[in-house]
Request: fold
Amino acid sequence: MYKIGVIGDSASVLGFMAIGFGVFPVESAEEARKTIVRLANDNYAILYITENFAMECEETIARYKDTPLPAVITIPGKDGAKGYGLANIKRSVERAIGADILFKEE
Reply:
């Protein structure tokens, strides 16, 4: 059975416990990197990570970009969205489709 995990600062991730996700509060980018790798090797299909840590863990997250599992998804932290997650979605769509169909400026 696959699991879902959430990585980020305590204030941003603890609420996810209420819906049954595995919650992994971290305090540093290094701790976040180690947690991503550990969960990827422990049957986690989806990893949500707050933007502030995702920005600092780009190389680690990139390892899983072309693998079926886990899907690593950036979410806003307690301070709100910084635009990093949306930029990742844009890059993924451009990569899959070959063009910017979502955010095309007119």
User: Anything to note?
Assistant: The beta strands are 3-8, 22-25, 44-50, 71-75. The chain has one domain: 3-81. Residues 3-81 form a domain with the Rossmann fold fold (CATH 3.40.50.10580). The chain has a mean pLDDT of 88.
